[in-house]
Amino acid sequence: MRTETVAYLSRPPLRRLLFAARERFERNGGPYGRLVLTSLSPDEAHAFNGLLAPQKPYLPGRDAQIKLPRLDAQLRSSRLAVTLEEALVAVDGPLGNRRAERAAAAAARDAAWARVLAHPQARRPELAGWLEHARKRFGGASPERTALVLQALDVLTALPAEGQPLAALAASRAGGDAHALDRTRPLGRIVAAALFALEGATPREPSSADEWRALWARVGISCDELSCTVLTLGLRPHRLSRGYLAGRLRAAARAGRPLVLTLAELRAEPPRLAGDVLFVCENPSIVAAAAETLRSRCPPLLCTGGWPNTAVAMVLDAAENAALEILVHADSDHAGAAIAGLVLRRTGAKPWRVVDPGAGVHEESLLDELLEDLGSGWVGQRRLVA
Prior knowledge:
By secondary structure, this protein is α/β, with parallel strands linked by helices. It has helices at 3-9, 15-28, 42-52, 68-77, 84-92, 98-118, 128-139, 143-157, 166-173, 186-198, 209-217, 244-255, 263-268, 284-293, 310-321, 334-344, 367-376, and strands at residues 34-37, 64-67, 164-165, 221-222, 229-233, 259-262, 277-281, 301-303, 325-328, 349-351, 378-379, 382-383. α2 (15-28) crosses α5, α7 (128-139) packs antiparallel against α8 (143-157) and α14 crosses α17 (367-376).
């Protein structure tokens, strides 16, 4: 393009016209649509009249409506003899095609979301509401943001767990970033919303740190070693065990008092247990009743407090290592059946009392029978404690 043509088009009075024309050209993918330029300056009005030769001249202080096809035609037929596209490129460089770019971006988003829907976890009916929640939040974003949903589904594949730190889960399922599932991170928040959905609740983010920890604990994940605890009664350490934790266990067993152990102290001093049997219940009310009724006569009793967390898993590990028989009881509902089923995978684990998983009977309604088992050392016709 000739130097004088570029100089003419680059004049300040045409600057606003060509800037607006470029934006519309890129948006529409060609010389389509029209522009409205408000409150023309005297120089702009003069320049537009010279370039476009309108039937009614443009006036200073008034608005100008300019159709891009007419602007293109006038440029072609003028002494400049250039197209609108050539003019825009000469003044400000290559044009983008926003329509094509938008179409390509939409296709990329659709392809990314198709990968989400193809994930095995996405087929779970209870996640339908969460997927809609996630699509509203991320489906219209870039494929990189949609990848967060894929990562969340990968995390769900590993749940429920049998006692695992949140950082370890993140490191193994979120690209090696041990903090990816933190409460302050997008992936942590979207997985938390999925966990609510799996419980039949509306997908949302936990409203407090306590709710956050409790939510993860229900799927066997501990957020930190102090908030992760296990309730016990009558745990007795091996006679050769020494140390802080062994002393606490002996004192609590002699006094017949329930003892809450943190994951931190269990990891600092993994317990060595003594005895023949470990009873496992789901609800803290069973432990409270056993402590009040049996006191120091109560055999080792462990309460899962819902889904077994990491601290529960460590006590169960100790029972397995000591070859204790593990007798498991939980509420006779689907959640209780899942809890009991998890514990029953362990070596030496058996049902404490066989219950119908669909009966909906809570442990508290069998309190007398459970206390009788604990106090007598008999379960049914089996003698458990010498």
